[in-house]
Amino acid sequence: MKKLILLLSLSYCFTQNAELKVNKKGLGFEFHTMPQAYTITDVSDASGYGIFIPLEYGQFFIEPYFSRYQIINSYKTGTTTYEYLDRSTTYGIGLFLMKMSSNNKSKLYYGLRWSKEDFINEEPSTSSSGGKIVTEAQPTLISPTIGVEYAFFENFSFGGEVNFHMMDYERTIDDDTYGVKFQALMPRFLVRLYF
């Protein structure tokens, strides 16, 4: 949470700098363009939908973002109820160069997205002693990104982008640590509202 506040504070500082004039500020929402089964990764079993804060500075485009999901699964056997947690919190920032079309209706942007995820998953143990299998990971994700945004109205746009996700991290399952390398090409659909 402290890192998210720091990230948003830095973005706000950019907006207060007299030399860097903010052309537009906004709020964006993410929608997956692929069925949920295709968005499942080794990191998490479900994908949170993100909230984006687009900030345009001249030809630069900066976009902090945040997503979170939490699922608590309950399992009851006899008089005993077990609860298993599945939670992910992701925060990050995108840094892009952008080129506007001649009619100022569409823009092409390209650059990098960086994000950090804090993930925990609990599931029932298959051993005879019962208990939980706890998986934890805190991967850092770097994603070269290219996207297009089209403004249907002055303050409302649709956009699509493709991210090449790259992660190299360790995850802990109970007391065992495993190395994971993950790469995927992922499309994303965004709606942005500017004010």
In words, what does this structure look like?
It is a single chain. The chain has 195 residues and is mostly beta strands. The protein has a single domain (2-194), classed as Porin, CATH 2.40.160.20. It is 10% helix and 67% strand. It has helices at residues 2-16, 36-39; strands at 22-31, 51-52, 55-57, 60-77, 80-100, 106-124, 132-137, 140-153, 156-173, 176-194. Strands 1, 2, 3, 4, 5, 6, 7, 8, 9 and 10 form a 10-stranded antiparallel β-sheet that branches. A hairpin with a 5-residue loop joins strand 5 and strand 6 (106-124). The longest helix has 15 residues, at 2-16. It is elongated and about 65 Å long. Mean pLDDT is 82; it is low at 36-46.
What brief labels describe this structure?
195 residues, mainly beta, Porin, 10-stranded antiparallel beta sheet, 10 strands, 10% helix, Outer membrane protein beta-barrel domain-containing protein
